[in-house]
Design brief:
Length: about 210
């Protein structure tokens, strides 16, 4: 199942999209595009439930991602992620900060990332950013789409500014689709004075 490829979410997203989607893409911030040009590795191809024709291997990947999101596959996923990080970055990995894009609530974030982050950093020597990124609660925000506007609860993310200043960071997320969450998070980290070297993801939505 292991893929180990680099990807460009912007390119893959535009490949099969309509003219209107491509027009919208022209207004994507340049800072996001710069993040997408950095190294981005994924371990597995992830097929969401909307895709009906899947193989037993595809189902295994789905179950792995779901288990990870529920905090039930932390150690195993940490081992495969650590292995990839060491292969990609070599000895340099010990100078990198490992930062996970937070889950949607403080409870889910702890369940998904606390043990996982600790294990990855134990295996690689990376600097663990788990305690430097917290989800403090939720607030209502207006979400806009082509269908209109609606209110959604969004998490409030807090950063330890001094922790990130001057650091090199590799960003982790469980699944990457269009890459927007990764780009926004990476830009937020760099606004604190850090340098994001790239991202690593358990799965890539295809």
């Amino acid at each position: 199942m292991e893929k180990g490829k680099r990807l460009s979410p912007e390119t893959s997203w535009l490949k099969n999209k309509s003219t209107i989607d491509i027009m919208i893409a022209k207004f994507i911030p340049q800072s996001w595009k710069e993040q997408w040009c950095k190294r981005m590795d994924f371990l597995y191809n992830y097929k969401p439930m909307r895709i009906k024709e899947v193989t037993p291997e595809d189902w295994n990947v789905r179950k792995l991602v779901w288990a990870f999101k529920d905090g039930k596959a932390s150690d195993w996923c940490a081992e495969v992620v650590a292995k990839r990080l060491m292969k990609v970055y070599g000895e340099r990995v010990k100078q990198l900060v490992f930062a996970c894009i937070p889950a949607s609530s403080a409870i889910k974030n702890e369940q998904r990332y606390m043990q996982f982050s600790q294990k990855v950093c134990e295996l690689t020597g990376c600097i663990n950013a788990y305690e430097a990124i917290t989800v403090s609660g939720q607030r209502l925000a207006i979400h806009e789409s082509r269908e209109g506007k609606n209110l959604r609860n969004t998490q409030v993310i807090n950063f330890d500014n001094s922790f990130f200043a001057g650091k090199e960071v590799v960003v982790f997320d469980d699944v990457i689709t269009k890459g927007r969450s990764y780009a926004k998070f990476a830009c937020a980290i760099e606004a604190l004075g850090a340098s994001v070297v790239g991202g690593i993801f358990l799965g890539r939505t295809i």
